[in-house]
TrEMBL record:
Cofactor binding note: Binds a copper A center.
Catalytic activity from the UniProt record: 4 Fe(II)-[cytochrome c] + O2 + 8 H(+)(in) = 4 Fe(III)-[cytochrome c] + 2 H2O + 4 H(+)(out)
Entry-linked InterPro entries: CcO_II (IPR045187), CcO_II-like_C (IPR002429), CcO_II_C (IPR034210), Copper_CuA (IPR001505), Cupredoxin (IPR008972), Cyt_c_oxidase_su2 (IPR014222), Cyt_c_oxidase_su2_TM_dom (IPR011759), Cyt_c_oxidase_su2_TM_sf (IPR036257)
Cofactor field: Cu cation
Official protein name in the record: Cytochrome c oxidase subunit 2
Organism in which the protein naturally occurs: Bradypus variegatus (Brown-throated three-toed sloth)
A GO molecular-function annotation: copper ion binding
One GO term describing the cellular component: mitochondrial inner membrane
All residue ranges annotated as the Cytochrome oxidase subunit II transmembrane region profile domain in the record: 1-91
Domain Cytochrome oxidase subunit II copper A binding per the UniProt entry, residue ranges: 92-225
Gene: COX2
Keyword set includes tRNA processing: no
Membrane topology: Multi-pass membrane protein
UniProt cross-references to NCBIfam families, sorted A to Z: CoxB
């Protein structure tokens, strides 16, 4: 869950999000190191009283500052490609949910069950209960099982939308006439919030997403009651 004055990412609740956070920290460390060295050299050039009147070619230095950045970029790219492959890989999902975007609400269909679908609308501010979040609560939460590979099929009935849950590393466009696929697996139970991340009209900010993860036995009991 995001909070005020937050400077970093939300806490990861999936293996892919943890990998992305590690990549971010790894890349940021390299950037800070390079920035420190460059700023140190620039400060020396600005404040030193020594000047070079006879500057000669330095092939060794030019070779070094060409090869070294290339090596750094390759190291970052290799790790990025590995994570990109993991993000697109679908390994035998145990549950499939079809998500449709509308102006301005979401509808969900549990395709592994017969006639199991519902619409989720934002709860107005005047109807919120103590402890609930403004513009982030739905009347029907999407209940899922933790530690279960889940496939999300995402599309739209009208205009472009985007289904996004930051803590799960998911952001997939909902495009009319096209079915996009995303996978998610939560490593722990809890409530995870998101919002439509594509400007889709006057009520774009009133399309929250709420996922509620339970252990498998609780999810099975809930699905039995809903059916």
């Amino acid at each position: 869950m995001a909070h005020g004055l937050q400077l970093g990412f939300q806490d990861a609740t999936s293996a892919i999000m943890e990998e992305l956070l590690h990549l971010h920290d790894h890349t940021l460390m390299i950037m800070f190191l390079i920035s420190t060295v460059v700023l140190y050299i620039i400060s020396l050039m600005l404040w030193t009283k020594l000047t070079h009147t006879n500057t000669m070619d330095a092939q060794e230095v030019e070779t070094m500052w060409t090869i070294l950045p290339a090596i750094i970029l390759i190291l970052i790219a290799l790790r990025s490609l590995r994570i990109l492959y993991m993000m697109d890989e679908v390994n035998n999902p145990l549950l499939t949910i079809k998500t449709m975007g509308h102006q301005w609400y979401w509808s969900y269909e549990y395709t592994d069950y017969e006639d199991f679908y519902f619409d989720s609308y934002m709860i107005p501010t005047s109807n919120l209960e103590p402890g609930q979040f403004r513009l982030l609560e739905e009347d029907n939460r999407t209940v899922l099982a933790m530690e279960m590979p889940i496939r999300m099929l995402i599309s739209s009935e009208d205009v472009l939308h985007s289904w996004a849950i930051p803590s799960l590393r998911i952001k997939s466009d909902a495009i009319p006439g096209r079915l996009n696929q995303a996978t998610l697996t939560s490593s722990r139970p809890g409530l995870y919030y998101g919002q439509c991340s594509e400007i889709c009209g006057s009520n774009h900010s009133f399309m929250p997403i709420v996922l509620e993860f339970f252990p498998l036995d609780h999810f099975e009991n809930w699905s039995t009651l809903m059916l």
